[in-house]
Amino acid sequence: MQKAQTVRSKLATLLIIDDNPNIRESIKMVLEDTYSLKFFEDGITALEHIKESPPDLVISDISMPRMNGIDVLRHIKKIDPTIQVIMLTGYASVESARAAVRYGAYDYIVKPYDTEKFLDTIESSINLKHQILEDSKNIDKIKDLNKAMERDMIKSRKLAYSGQLSAGIIHEVSNPLSAIEGYLHIIQKKISNKNILDGEELEFLKKYIGITHNQLKRSIRIIRNHLNFLQISNEENLIDLNECLEEILTLLKYQNITVRIDMKSEFNDLPKIRGNSDHFQQIFMNMLYNAIHAIEKNGVIVVRTEIVLNEEQKRFISISFIDNGCGIPTDKLERIFEPFYTTKAKGVGTGLGMAISYEIIKKYDGDIIIKSTPGKGTKISILIPVK
């Protein structure tokens, strides 16, 4: 066990600051077989070295010329908070050493020091340094895992929406394709047994070829919009929120359930924002599906974008989704952002849409404001600060 500790410690670099050559020599005799050592007579010179090559541990005297040990400690913590610092002090300056601990020193050793206690303190401080670095790596791993889970969540919800959209898309695409087939049949019949076309016949063909081309482009656009929606991107770029909303509204129009709903858009000019378009596609789809499900029969959904000012006259992008559906009961409104909580009927929704949307908007320093009157409708406003 002792051997393992020695091997790990041998990798550690210690930087000693003391203006007393006898102290430096005694520390060297005690530590040189176990650690890599650097010695400095004053704090200013030592700090320059620390900036270039941070050690694992600094052992510093408190009383020194040019810069005292407390100030050295403060500068070290600004350079790298993970560097551990042990203060050396005489009995007369113990209070200063205790103050140094409050400023972030790992511990203090009173001169003349007990060698065993000195070694134990050094070893435990280096262990702490290693633990901090390991914890930092774990935190980074957790952050990466959270990002991956978020991407998977977005992908899963997009696939869920895809299933709901598919029937409408198939129906919508089949119409222009049927038209294309019919027009091509007319054209084929018109030109059969004809070597030369002119006059009315030529104009007739031009007209129907143009109609056929437009129907074909419409089919391609429907499919392309659907495929673009399903794509998952990690990239951040400048986003036109009006354009993003228009794409989602276009997708929803392909569903039969929107036939009974009058979808209105009231778009005003907005500045582009930097972000991930997948985030906003998911949020907008969540809001619109909530509004659709809130309307039992026929109804209206208004999507409005504008710039608004808060009480402090700060500018925000506002995206509002206004429906005349069933509304949300007051006692349920305060729980609307809780994961797995839903006001929808059993089997409709997972209760994650609003929770996920809220978490995403918070990443953009924004907020979601909900106003609802049972039996009359709901207005959900997404606010994003203009930076």
Rg over CA atoms:
35 Å
- Report the sheet-strand fraction: 15-25%
Helix/strand-derived class? alpha/beta
Question: Number of DSSP helices?
Answer: 11
Going across the biggest sheet, name each strand in turn.
Answer: 2-1-3-4-5
Can you summarize the main beta sheet?
Answer: 5 strands, parallel
CATH top level class name of the domain at 236-387: Alpha Beta
Number of strands: 12
Strand/helix succession: HEHEHEHEHEHHEHEEHEEHHEE
Q: What oligomeric state do the depicted chains represent? A: single chain
| Low-confidence regions | 1-10
**In the CATH classification, which architecture of the domain at 236-387 applies?**
2-Layer Sandwich
Q: Roughly how much helix do the residues carry, as a percent range?
A: 40-55%
CATH H-level superfamily title of the domain at 236-387:
Histidine kinase-like ATPase, C-terminal domain
Characterize the overall form: elongated
Q: In whole angstroms, how far apart are the ends?
A: 56 Å
CATH topology annotation of the domain at 236-387:
Heat Shock Protein 90
Give the mean pLDDT: 77
Explain what you see.
It is built from eleven helices and twelve strands. With 387 residues, the protein is of the alpha/beta class. Among the domains are: 2-113, Response regulator (Rossmann fold); 236-387, Heat Shock Protein 90 (2-Layer Sandwich), CATH 3.30.565. Strand 9 (299-309) and strand 10 (315-323) form a beta hairpin. The radius of gyration is 35 Å and the shape is elongated. The two termini are 56 Å apart. Mean pLDDT is 77; it is low at 1-10.
